[in-house]
Design goal:
By secondary structure, this protein is of the alpha/beta class. Helix content is 50%, strand content 14%. It contains eight helices and six strands; from the N terminus they run βαβααβααβααβαβ. It has helices spanning 16-27, 42-47, 49-72, 90-98, 101-115, 131-141, 151-168, 187-196; strands at 5-10, 30-32, 82-84, 123-128, 172-177, 204-208. The chain has a six-stranded parallel sheet, sandwiched between helices. It is globular and about 45 Å long.
């Protein structure tokens, strides 16, 4: 293993948590999972985005910071392997999509202070998928508050991810075209992803598979 802190990212329904769990189990790594279910504003946001977007994004930001700070501060990121299913910068990505401009400006001030105190991943894997496939995955897992999500919203979030990566890629980012991959049920597909972890990449965006 050439990396010590690996992040799996993707749009809603991309399978990032599933892949993070699989890799952490295979490599005996510390697993960090996002505590999205604890956010009291998430279900309310999907029903009334305008009213609940700002408290939702602020709650996510502070909770993610607290979780990462507590867990990563106990690890030696030079020797221990950590796999997470999110990174702190996703706060800025979702906030840009969901907030009004004045709210976003205020949010960024807090985000930039907080994010500077956390280590950046050695490698980020982004699972790219079509909105149509993401909606199928969302329907399959059956979370009631997600069932009204529209393809246009997913497309907008994903585009914000890609723009952010292009503008602020300070570490290696692998974008995996996962539309035709089934890493859960096909061992060959999963092994392809695992093999990527044995390669070295420079900072920036790399499209893979």
């Amino acid at each position: 293993m050439k990396y010590n802190y690996i992040v799996i990212e993707g749009c809603i329904g991309a399978g990032k948590t599933t892949l993070a769990k699989m890799l952490a189990a295979d490599f005996n790594a510390e697993l960090i999972l996002e505590r999205f279910a604890d956010n009291p504003f998430l279900a309310k946001f999907y029903k009334d985005p305008t009213h609940y977007a700002f408290p939702l994004e602020m709650t996510f930001l502070t909770d993610r910071y607290q979780q990462l700070k507590n867990l990563l501060s106990r690890r030696d990121l030079f020797t221990d392997l950590v796999v997470a299913d999110y990174f702190i910068d996703k706060c800025a990505i979702f906030a840009k999509n969901n907030l009004q401009q004045d709210e976003y400006n205020l949010f960024l001030k807090v985000y930039e202070i907080i994010s500077d105190f956390l280590p950046k991943p050695d490698l980020l894997i982004y699972l790219y998928n079509t909105p149509e496939n993401l909606l199928k995955n969302i329907a399959k897992r059956g979370r009631e508050y997600e069932q009204e999500i529209q393809a246009a919203y997913l497309e907008s979030i994903q585009e914000n991810y890609l723009t952010f990566f292009r503008q602020r890629a300070r570490f290696p980012i692998l974008i995996i075209e996962s539309n035709a991959l089934d890493f859960v049920n096909c061992i060959d597909d999963y092994e392809k992803i695992k093999a990527l972890l044995q390669c070295e990449y420079g900072a920036g965006v790399h499209r893979i598979l």
